[in-house]
Amino acid sequence: MSSLTPHFRDLQTLNTLTLPCQAQEFILLNDLAQLPALSALYKKNQKSINTHGFTDQFSRNNFSELDTTNPLNKPHKVCALHILGGGSNLVLPRVLRQPVVHVQLKGIRLLKCNGDAVGDASAASASASDNNERSKTHNRIRVAAGENWHDCVTFALNQGWYGLENLALIPGSVGAAPVQNIGAYGVEVAQLVESVEVWNLKTEQIETLSAQACNFAYRNSRFKRATESNEIIVAVIFALPKTWQPVLNYPDLKPLAERHLKHPESITAHDVYQLVCEVRQRKLPDPGVMPNVGSFFQNPIVPREHAEALKKEFPHLMSYPQADGSHKLAAGWLIDQCGWKGKRLGPVGMHASQALVLVNPGGGDCDDVMALANVVRQDVQARFRVMLQIEPICWAET
């Protein structure tokens, strides 16, 4: 069993909002051999957590105004271990005393019908998957959780494994992708995930969860819903169709969609990848330049009757019918109509070009972020009778 070496670490450079956060016990996970030691640490810490789990001013003060009937708006319970990926979808408190595990497991490989692996992208390795009939119709790739998401998309594209291109330039790690069920430009990662490999901290075994077992939903999954998870994602297996078809139904991809109608054979996955990157760079701030976590609120889904009533009051309301009869509203439009686009509250604000993105240009902390989030949500609720849900995961101070 490989040993662990916890140490103090400031997490400000490990989260894309650049929030100051002092991790008292920081652990780098870059070898599967460390997993048994993590289980031992998890079980030790689990005993010391009180039964209620909620703690500190971060939980009480910042979430006091939120709609706590929805679990997405609640802070996580105090965890025996905090699992950190790319830090691109997190709101961090000022202090974390429980161990923080930074997942840096590496490796990308193609799985063949006989279960052998080919095309290692890094030195990391793990046992190959069982024989799978889908390999005949799909490129099945196993990607370690610590790989950078955009680098994974680019690597797959250059290998001729198509299907991920609509999800290019989304910040974060591969292990975080199924947690959030990331999506963009008409594609959700749930459509491409075959299974997720997790280390069960209690049983001390690697388990393979099917896509169905992950309980994917809009920007959600079993991993995100869990208030106290005993699973660490170590790898994701994607099944990418060998017969590729472009997904071009998103308005920003209209130039390619029009070309596809006239000359369908002329559209390539590289074309889609390039246009998606151009659109994202034009519309969304680079976290490396302007600290942010991308969309800070989810696009709300409301009953058809509510959407129709709002449409009468606000003829320009951006509303998209869903298969079940409900309507998805554009949260950015709602926030813009409340006057928050480009407006700041202290050191943080809503981005001038994309009102859905909360930015931290002034070096704010978790209190500043949640104060703005509360005010924006209250204003949208007052005007449109819609309560926005926070998209990033919020860790409670421990």
CATH class identity of the largest domain: Alpha Beta
Reported CATH architecture of the largest domain: 2-Layer Sandwich
- Would you report the number of β strands? 22
Largest sheet: 6 strands, antiparallel
Strand content: 15-25%
Description:
The chain has 398 residues and is α+β, with helices and mostly antiparallel strands. The chain has 3 domains: 7-103, Uridine Diphospho-n-acetylenolpyruvylglucosamine Reductase, domain 2; 108-279, Uridine Diphospho-n-acetylenolpyruvylglucosamine Reductase, domain 3, CATH 3.30.465.10; 283-394, Uridine Diphospho-n-acetylenolpyruvylglucosamine Reductase, domain 1, CATH 3.90.78. It contains 10 helices and 22 strands. It has helices at 35-46, 56-62, 149-159, 177-180, 222-225, 254-262, 269-283, 304-313, 331-337, 366-384, and strands at 7-10, 22-29, 82-84, 90-91, 95-96, 100-103, 108-111, 117-118, 138-144, 183-184, 187-188, 193-200, 205-210, 231-241, 292-295, 301-302, 319-321, 327-329, 344-345, 348-350, 357-359, 393-394. The chain has a 6-stranded antiparallel beta sheet with strand order 8-7-9-14-12-13, with no helix packed on it. Strands 1, 2, 3, 5 and 6 form a 5-stranded mixed beta sheet that branches. The longest helix has 19 residues, at 366-384.
Summarize the structure.
The protein has 398 residues and is of the alpha+beta class. It folds into three domains: 7-103, Uridine Diphospho-n-acetylenolpyruvylglucosamine Reductase, domain 2 (2-Layer Sandwich), CATH 3.30.43; 108-279, Uridine Diphospho-n-acetylenolpyruvylglucosamine Reductase, domain 3 (2-Layer Sandwich); 283-394, Alpha-Beta Complex (Uridine Diphospho-n-acetylenolpyruvylglucosamine Reductase, domain 1), CATH 3.90.78. It has helices at residues 35-46, 56-62, 149-159, 177-180, 222-225, 254-262, 269-283, 304-313, 331-337, 366-384, and strands at 7-10, 22-29, 82-84, 90-91, 95-96, 100-103, 108-111, 117-118, 138-144, 183-184, 187-188, 193-200, 205-210, 231-241, 292-295, 301-302, 319-321, 327-329, 344-345, 348-350, 357-359, 393-394.
